[in-house]
Design brief:
The chain is an alpha/beta fold and 153 residues long. It has helices at 9-17, 86-90, 98-106, 126-142, and strands spanning 38-43, 47-49, 63-66, 74-76, 112-113, 116-119, 147-151. It has one domain (33-151). It starts with 8 loop residues before the first helix and ends with a strand.
């Protein structure tokens, strides 16, 4: 794990300056059992499909990862020098557990795997990501996603 005290000054100042959102209340709702839910993934590992533009510093945009993607279809362009990619290189499921979701759907633990999943660049300003989140939310609603696993990296 990277420690702020070990980071270069410029990167440490960037991370320390990121605003932390506050939430007045926690949203909650009832829904179907997990075995009936359609599940999507949202990662901040800076993942994209091979051939797509990599993420840049402070990027607030996102990439769509098809549910049919394989590890060989995906690249990681996370730009932090402090990010240890070893786990990802050994098993992509560490940052995007699509294989695990497929297994869970096959054994009935979840209802279905969503057709699309999403990746952002971590260590970006959450406030600037709001427009992207609104687009993704609408896409997931159209796809009838009713559970999302957030994978902060």
């Amino acid at each position: 794990m990277a420690r702020l005290s070990d980071m270069p000054d410029a990167l440490r100042r960037h991370i320390e300056a990121l605003p932390l959102p506050t939430f007045e209340e926690t949203a909650s709702c009832d829904g179907p059992a997990l075995s009936e839910r359609r599940v999507a993934l949202i990662s901040t590992a800076g993942l994209s499909m091979t051939g797509e533009a990599p993420f840049g510093m402070g990027a607030a945009d996102y990439r769509v990862i098809p549910g049919s993607a394989d590890a060989s279809d995906i690249i990681m362009s996370h730009i932090s020098v402090n990010y240890d990619r070893t786990g990802y290189q050994r098993d992509w499921n560490v940052v995007l557990p699509l294989d695990r979701l497929r297994e869970m759907a096959a054994d009935g633990s979840i209802g279905a795997v969503a057709d699309h999943h999403y990746s952002f660049m971590g260590a970006s300003d959450p406030e600037s990501m709001k427009p992207s989140i609104e687009v993704i939310t609408k896409a997931m609603l159209r796809e009838k996603v009713d559970a999302v696993l957030l994978l902060p990296v």
